[in-house]
Amino acid sequence: MSATANPSTNASANDDRSKEERLKQYLLDRAQDGEMYFKGKFISDDIDLSPKEIGALMVKLRDSATELTVEKWSYTGATTWRVEPA
Question: What is the pTM of this model?
Fold first, then answer.
């Protein structure tokens, strides 16, 4: 049995990191002057991700992004996120 990883799995993991980095950079750019509030469905076209992808990535960023403070703020029709520079 080979010890090498499945190439499609590696490509998928790299794509996920790329999406996460793209979202993080977008948030850093928008929040540089202070806090911002947003719903994924309203920024999805700006970063070419679906609202569902944005929601999943926001949960990851909440735990991993040291440059940002990410907080799940409220839910009315969709999750509102509060983001500010750390």
Answer: 0.79
